Amino acid sequence: MMNIKEIKGIKLAPFTRMTASIYAVLGFVAAVVMLIGLTIVQVAGVIPELGHFNLVTGVGIPLIVLLPIGAFFSTIVMSFFSVMLYNVLVPRLGGVKLELVGNEVENIPVVPFSLILSAIGAVWAFILGLVLAAVISPLFSLIGAMGTMPEAASITANLTASGVAIPTGPGIGVAEAIVSLVLIIGLPIMAFVFGFIWNALFALFYNYLVSRVAKIQLEFGQITGSLHELKHIPVLPTALSVALVFTLLGLISGILSKNYGEFISNFVVYFIETALIALLYNYLAPRIGSIKLNLE
What we know:
Blueprint: E1 3-10, H1 12-44, H2 55-93, E2 97-101, E3 104-107, H3 110-146, H4 150-161, H5 170-208, E4 219-224, E5 227-232, H6 235-257, H7 262-288, E6 292-295
Antiparallel strand pairs: 1-2, 1-6, 2-3, 4-5, 5-6
């Protein structure tokens, strides 16, 4: 029997704690893989230009510490703010809906899924645009100040004579305003549009193609009322379905970029990553607490 559930809210602390813990472990795994690779490079002497520099002790071992810590704290920020945005936007845009048959995700309604996720991406793009605009503003001021120096006049004259237009004075202020507008307004709009298309393709591929082969499986348990916990994630069917979706997405982006092997790498990377995330979630949930959601 089909059971339609809408994720009306996500508890901040359990989600942030779980995702940060998972990505800290993934950061450690990545650091170990890089350490092994650097050890092979060091022993084989692949880069003789390094001389006596030891890649293992100079780069590999510090990464064992730095990558997990960096992944943990960066994921805390990303997860906490993203979930907070989700909870704020759901009453206005609606939440992600899942059509479940037992613990299998049979269908992902396209518009709710794409709308909320692309809106969150647009807010992140707006924040990034603000930061970049704040960073480039002093650079434009510095360029303007340098333009008043006597030495700059001869350089500008030479470049102008060669057909290169160099903005000076008011032109620099106009250029700064245009770039800032593009970053603060244009970047979020582009993030929303392309994010909506990408997420819509994800849902469409899953609904009409991938779900015929493998389905995402999520085992929820009711705590009280609409509050549920994600108790367990079956590893193989979930990893296979996610990897197949990204394989199809990789096929499209590979054709556009003429990188025809991208769909193969997508399958391998996303299968391994999703399987590791599911395994870690199943291991950590009884120990640090599961993700909790309001499902209606």
